[in-house]
């Protein structure tokens, strides 16, 4: 059966569009995964800022970024013993490192649980009227929320690509 030039013109774009379309879909999947990884860096930043803050509190200084719970732990130990317990104050930071690792692996629960804990941590700053730290918590929570939304988008793209 012969095809006419008109039929070839109609069928040829369908054949050439499919691989290009798959490339676009894959590019979108890769882009959303990259956005998730970028948002997961918030967990690592929170942990690093908290560790820096613990060292600064031990030296008599203060840093507005980081976890309020580590500052609370540092303050408690400083009041009770006269020095900070860096091991006790590092535990919450390590937890946020774990959230970051699982968030990079596109696990939505890491963003949800980590975000809830970080929001509760922000309440500590609001309670003590530390508004700069509270505002930073809001900024970081927005970044974590964007990561969670990117996971949802990523999953939808993957599901559509395999359907």
From TrEMBL:
It comes from the Bacteria. Keywords: Membrane, Transmembrane, Transmembrane helix. The chain crosses the membrane at residues 41-65, 85-102, 109-128, 134-151. This is DUF4386 domain-containing protein.
